[in-house]
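Weekly modeling sync, notes
Attendees: S.R. (lead), two postdocs, one rotation student

Agenda item 3: backlog of single-chain predictions. S.R. asked that every request posted to the team notebook include the full sequence so nobody has to chase files. The rotation student volunteered to paste the first one in as an example of the format we agreed on. Action items at the bottom.

Example entry:
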Amino acid sequence: MTKSILSVKNQVLCALFAALVAIGAFIQIPVPYMDYFTLQFFFVLMAGILLGGKLGAISVGCYVLLGIVGLPIFAAGGGIGYVFRPSFGYLVGFIVAAFVTGTLSRKMSVSFLHYFLACLGGFAVTYGIGIVYKYLMLKYYLNTPETLGVILLSCFPLDMPGDLVLCGLASFVGTRLTAIRIME
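Predicted structure, as returned to the notebook:
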């Protein structure tokens, strides 16, 4: 008998968080005079905090893979063509964010501040990868002469402040769930 790489419990947890990230894409909070933001990032951070770096990245990676193969689980659909959207880099960033958040949160003691710092690490890599990908797609694929500064500034009215609030919410919820050992 061969040993499974992931236990059944871990497979179920990864599937659960992949589903939660997908559901989070459709929980859209409208902001007057602007667009909306979703709760995807919250569930990405929770996957990292509760599952750890490796399993968190696997769960979010499964979500991204399912969307690429055609399931309409991204905020604006799905399919292989999504790779050519300027916003696809944020989905790649989500995978790395779950890994970074999970890895950092496991190296620190359980506290709101430590989890918030871990979430800020996930925030930084999500936006770092997302902004660079968007810049490259706009400049070299769509021939749009946008600068990195303009792309960065476009994140400020809604996306970055909203995701910082989600970092705080994930830190609070993660601290509470970890304290009651819900994932054991």
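Discussion: group reviewed the output briefly. The mean pLDDT is 91.
Action items: rotation student to repeat for the remaining queue; S.R. to check formatting next week.
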